[in-house]
Specification:
This protein is mainly α and 172 residues long. 58% of the residues lie in helices and 6% in strands.
Length: 172
């Protein structure tokens, strides 16, 4: 396992060699003929490209289940909590927190995957919980779909390193 605080050059080089030997490079994927201005510029484009690739892959796998990626994110958040959440608490935990959370929750309630209840201590707030049907849907998605199979091309130590590097990037 890699130390999440310190990432050394050998670990980065090992990941670099593995990625370059067995997979298409970003330049080939996006048909880029000109070199990037810097490695940092390439990282930014690679993160954007890979993020879109993951989102598109997950969206396609979720479509037959009748939920969007954002709705799936909300259901995961609700299933992972022990107590009900307000709309703003859900928004704060979402991957894309610029979403219209109220509209997304309304759709989940209409589909029977979430429940809304006015808070007894403050009538201005509503508590949102996952319904039994919402939990069953997540269980079905987990058993039916290879949602995270694209990550299987990485070894455990490479996954650890990638997570460490992404955490480091966000924490400047």
């Amino acid at each position: 396992m890699f130390n999440h605080c310190c990432v050394n050059a050998k670990q980065i080089f090992t990941l670099y060699i593995h990625c370059n030997v067995t997979h298409l490079k970003l330049e080939e994927e996006i048909n880029q003929k000109k070199a990037f201005a810097s490695q940092t510029a390439k990282v930014i484009v690679n993160l954007m490209y890979t993020g879109a690739w993951v989102a598109n892959s997950l969206s396609a796998q979720l479509k037959p289940h009748g939920v969007t990626l954002k709705q799936f994110n909300i259901l995961r958040i609700l299933k992972g909590t022990v107590s009900p959440l307000t709309t703003s608490e859900i928004r704060d935990r979402m991957i894309d927190n610029m979403s219209d959370v109220t509209r997304l929750i309304d759709r989940l309630i209409t589909k029977g995957y979430a429940k809304r209840k006015k808070r007894s201590t403050d009538k201005r707030l509503v508590d949102i919980t996952i319904s039994h049907n919402g939990s069953k849907l997540l269980d079905k998605i987990d058993s039916d779909l290879p949602l995270y199979d694209f990550g299987k091309s990485l070894e455990d130590d490479e996954t650890d390193l990638l997570n460490s590097l992404l955490d480091k990037l966000r924490n400047k």
